[in-house]
Design goal:
By secondary structure, the protein is α/β, with parallel strands linked by helices. It has a single domain, classed as Glutaredoxin (3-Layer(aba) Sandwich). It has five helices and six strands, in the order αββαβαβαββα. It starts with a helix and ends with a helix.
């Protein structure tokens, strides 16, 4: 009984934190086929702003304080290792502001994340309409959204299809 009460309380707290994190109104979650927003961030950690033109892009929207983000990062790194040589660019985006740079750098180092992370990506995250963390978005070389959400298994499937389509074109 106490566990159920604690789980319910934790769910409410997570909802409030996510609502506070994103604040304001969002235009609604983008969908496959939509033109993806320009990926912008106030600062980049782990490298310069990635070059996206003509590439398949995996966007991982996360927060350093997000337990599910921590849990999904190792499988995401496995997918990165599998597809990094196929013109696929991975990028992480967080709404955390520039004052959180040390926390984001520590998170990247602790999790061994090999891709660049964008801090203070509030505008891009709002344009995507992120309802919950973490969220994966895959963007095709033409700048259109290929998939929204999913896990490492569905990401592998989406990337395999996108690469096969790109090779056939």
């Amino acid at each position: 009984m106490l566990r159920k009460l604690f789980a319910a309380f934790a769910a409410v707290i997570l909802f409030v934190v996510v609502l506070t994190f994103f604040g304001g109104e969002t235009p609604g979650l983008i969908a496959p086929g939509d033109v993806a927003p320009q990926i912008k961030a106030g600062q980049w950690v782990g490298g310069d702003a990635p070059q996206f033109a003509g590439k398949i892009v995996v966007v991982d929207i996360f927060a350093t304080w997000c337990a599910p983000c921590v849990k999904t990062t190792p499988p995401l790194i496995d997918v990165y290792e599998e597809f990094k040589d196929h013109d696929v660019v991975f990028v992480g985006l967080t709404n955390e502001d520039g004052n959180s740079r040390r926390e984001v750098e520590a998170f990247r180092e602790q999790m061994n994340i090999p891709w660049t992370l964008g801090i203070d990506a509030t505008e891009t995250i709002a344009e995507i309409g992120v309802p919950i963390l973490p969220l994966l978005i895959v963007i095709g070389p033409d700048g259109k959204v290929l998939s929204v959400g999913g896990d490492d298994r569905t990401l592998r499937e989406t990337l395999s299809r996108a690469i096969a389509y790109q090779k056939a074109s």
